[in-house]
Each structure stands twice: as structure tokens, then as C-alpha cells.
Hints:
heterodimer, A: mainly alpha, B: mainly alpha
Amino acid sequence: xxxxxxxxxxxxxxxxxxxxxxxxxxxxxxxxxxxxxxxxxxxxxxxxxxxxxxxxxxxxxxxxxxxxxxxxxxxxxxxxxxxxxxxxxxxxxxxxxxxxxxxxxxxxxxx
Amino acid sequence: xxxxxxxxxxxxxxxxxxxxxxxxxxxxxxxxxxxxxxxxxxxxxxxxxxxxxxxxxxxxxxxxxxxxxxxxxxxxxxxxxxxxxxxxxxxxxxxxxxxxxxxxxxxxxxxxxxxxxxxxxxxxxxxxxxxxxxxxxxxxxxxxxxxxxxxxxxxxxxxxxxxxxxxxxxxxxxxxxxxxxxxxxxxxxxxxxxxxxxxxxxxxxxxxxxxxxxxxxxxxxxxxxxxxxxxxxxxxxxxxxxxxxxxxxxxxxxxxxxxxxxxxxxxxxxxxxxxxxxxxxxxxxxxxxxxxxxxxxxxxxxxxxxxxxxxxxxxxxxxxxxxxxxxxxxxxxxxxxxxxxxxxxxxxxxxxxxxxxxxxxxxxxxxxxxxxxxxxxxxxxxxxxxxxxxxxxxxxxxxxxxxxxxxxxxxxxxxxxxxxxxxxxxxxxxxxxxxxxxxxxxxxxxxxxxxxxxxxxxxxxxxxxxxxxxxxxxxxxxxxxxxxxxxxxxxxxxxxxxxxxxxxxxxxxxxxxxxxxxxxxxxxxxxxxxxxxxxxxxxxxxxxxxxxxxxxxxxxxxxxxxxxxxxxxx
Lengths: 111, 570
């Protein structure tokens, strides 16, 4: 379980960083989305990984429960990153309309 | 509980409710919306002053006021905490907001839709970030603030704003990811998100947990430093601030200070006992701050447009704060806080002033001035104009000129205004440290910083004088800008506040010194938050469950049923 999660987070972050550094706005947006997915997984893993453990009920001792706090955090983080991505998309479309280019600097030189 | 105890909620709730109301009654800059916005900002100013009075009552021994939302015990619930530093930042925010709001009423609020709701939401985020005692809520309030600032940065639209806004948003989204990673690492290490609780648990982390915590704190620090625009992370700032509309830029003047505030708050709170100034430990803050000062200084010298000059002056101010915080011992902090207030007010006034001064000025003037300078051409029609120069200067230009001079004095730190007192206090504390410092390394750093501060003041002065000469002594005819009183008023009020800070420098300095003492005494903050009992209704006090009345002995660890790894912090 741990290696799978670790590799998934690593691959997502790596691809995300690479894409964010690309010159096209669309690539930047996809990169930011990938980074936010990686971050969400990472927050999950910080509550320690447990398979099939309930968060609230179960009757067992606290050690048998999964940590609910990171799950709440992830929900918040998902909502926020979703909203921010939508906002960035709008700005990107505005930029495309105003500059006629989808380059992050609004012009094509230096490519 | 009396109403004053609930007042701490108002800086967050009031703008939130007002923003919602504005959207319900159509927030597109109608009269009612504007009236609501003005009401809200002025009410916030009043509330902030009351809170400031509450927080500073009792001088050096003033208490930290804690509010448990939903009446949950501090470790489980969300807390708001008001100490002197928070109250000071709240008051500063409210002052800037009032000035920017009044200024915007002249015409800027009509430059695009939804100025007023966004402005209120920005205030929610700022006030919340200053008040919250919880790491994850700090993130949420940062995001609220940033989301509003994205909208405001684009307010008025146009090529330059959209281009700068795109960079600004992308950089800050990456920083937000870093913020989340830092928060979750700290949570993973300590099992808590409450700042005071985390601080109380640092001491007994095992080696593994301590490593995790340090990494988390470092990542979190990077996120704050992006907001504070330290050198390699701050290239987005001058373009964005220069492109933003003046009232928006004036509000943005405090947004870099939010990063500085978070570093100061968490840095001092998360210092294990008896380690001195943890911010100075690695020297990173000092180095980064020094390079930021130099970069901002070079940027100011290179700027042709005044708005860019102001953008770089934000960098210099931010760099000064970070470097001095990273160089000194606790004595330096009080001077730093004084500088923070003075420079924020001055920069906000400058951003507002620029638009007034450049109004009625053809766009080509800048270009012309550049070419004149580049080719060394002397404008030889001067001789004829000079005869008329004795004639009445339009009064508005004179007022703007004086205001500009005041800004120049404040930003470069020359007497007689508060910029000088701030710089003098910082230099004095640094020199004192250089002479009596414990380690030769810190003396060396102090000298380097003193030299950089002095040189940056000179560079600021040169840049400001050049911009001022170009704007106020044009060698060709210019029309006096048409400026209405509600635009000039806020600028003059902000500058008058700086004058007030100068005249009342003694009380102001005493206030920031007590603030620093309160910050250094981190036990005070931790105890106030962790030992705050939940409110029990008088009638049923006996029925209160035992878990809801944590009567812990001093410094007791949480009796969380699980080891820290399992969390259950909320």
C-alpha cells in the first residue's frame, strides 16, 4: 500500500511540476491540477494509511479507526483547488481573447 | 458573556455577511452596494479600534483573548485568538481598507463588476488570517484572501492586468499546494492543527517526528515566503501590483505583510523553549531578505513608470522586514513592527497618489522622458517657460507634490517622518547587536544589513526624486489633474497617520515593544488557547460532561486517547 501511494504521489507531482513549467496555459492548468491531486493524496497519507478502517463507528479502540481529520481536510482542499482551477481557466480564456495567444506571457517570442 | 467577548468574530462575519448581501441585491456597483461597502469598512475600522483597545489593555501584561467557535474545547474545535499583534494587523487592515474604499468611490469601483463584494471578501480573508489560531483555517483564510485578490487584480480588465494576473494566480496556486503539504506534514508529525497545541507538542517529538515536523515547517515557510515575495519567489509581485488598479494595489500593500505576519507568528510559536530567535537560526531569512532588498532597490532605480517603482518599493519593504527579522535578536522585532506599520501606510498612500499624479499626463510623457535622458537632449524651450514658472502653481499640483515628497521621505527613511524613526530604531538595535552580540557571525551579519539598509534608502531616494522631477517639474505644458476631494482625502489621511506615528513615536514604540514581549512569551499564547474553558450555561453547569471541562495542570500534555499519530484533533 505505502509504496503504491508514494509512487503515485511522486509521479503526479513530477508530471505536475514539469507541466507547470511549460509555456502553454493549458499545460500549466493541467499541471496545477495534477499537483493538487498529489497534494490531496499526500494529505490522506499523513493520517496514516489504513485499509477498510471506519472513521467514527466500529466500537473498537481508537487504534482501529482511520483518522477522520485528514479526510475533512482533503474535502476542503478539493473544493478550494477545484474553484481555483475554474478561476484560472476563466483568466486563461480572457488572456487568450485579449492577446490572441495561449502562451503564458501572451506572446510567442523566445520559443 | 458580554458582547465585547463576541466582538472578535465581527471582523470576519461582518464583511462576509455584507458581501453576501451585496450579491443578493446585485453587486454591480449600484448605490446601495457602495453604501453597504462604505458602512462595512467604517464599521470594521471602529471594531478594529475597539479590539485594539481590548488587546492592549493592561500594558505589557495584556491578555490573549481566545474565542472558541461552537464552544468546543480548544484542541477539538476551531479557535480565534486575539493578541496585540493580531489586533495591530487588524487595525492596519481596516485603515487601509477605509482609505482604499473611499478612494475607489470616485470612479474605480465602476471599472468592472463586483468590486465591492470582492473587496469585502478580501477583508474576510485578511482579518481571518490575522485572527485564526488554527493552521488549517489559516490556509482557508489565505485562500479566501487570494481568491478575492485574483478577482481584484483583474478588476478593470485589460491586457496588462490579465497577463500579470495569470502569472500571479499560477504562482500562488503552486504556493497554496506547498502550504497544504506543510500543514499536512505538521499534522502528521504532531497530530494537531491548533497552533498552540502544536507548539506544546514540539518538545516531546521523537527523532522521526521532529524531522517530519521540521520538513513541514520548512515547506510551510516557503509558502509564506512566496506571499512575502522574498527574492527568488517574488518576481510576480511588481508586475501584478503595477497593473492592479490603485485602490486594489493599496490593499495589496498589506498582503505581503500577511506572509511576514505568518512567519513571525508561527516562527516564534514553534520555537522550542530556550532556542532564541529561530528565524535567525539558519541565516536563510537574512540572506533572502538582503537579496530582496538589493533586487527591489535595483528594480526601483530601473523603473520608468511610477507604478512599477511602487511595486519594487513593496519588495524593498518586505525584504527589509524579513532580513531584519532574520538577523536580530528579539530587540529588533519591535522596531520591525513599527517599520511594518509605517511602510505599509506609506506604500498604500503612494499607490493611491500615483494615479492622481499621473492623471492628465499623456502616456507618451514617460517615453519622451526616457529618450530625453537616453540621448542627453536638453529641452531647450525651457528658457522661455522658465519666465512663467513664477506664476501660480495650480494648488492641486502643489498638494500632490507635497504628498509625493512625504511618500519619498517615508519610503527612503529620511527625517522627519516615521520612516526615519523606523529605520533609526532598526539600525540602532542592529548596531547594538553588532557591538554586544554573542557571536562574531551575528555581528558581521548586522553590519552587512546596516550597510544594505542605508544604501537602499539612498537608492529609494534617488529613484523617487527622479520620478518626482519627471512628474511634477515637466519641462512642457501639462494640465493640472482633476482630482476630487474623496480621492485626495484618503491619501492625505494615510500620510497624516504616518505623521501621527512620528509625533506619537513614544507611545507607538512602547506599544510595539509590549507586542514583542508578548510574542516572545509564547507560553502566554499557548496557555490562553489551551486552558480556555468552554462556556457552560449557568443553570446546567453541573451537567457539563467531564470532557468539556479540561482543568489541566500547567503545561500538561493532551490526554488524547490515541498517540499523536492517530490525530483526532478535531
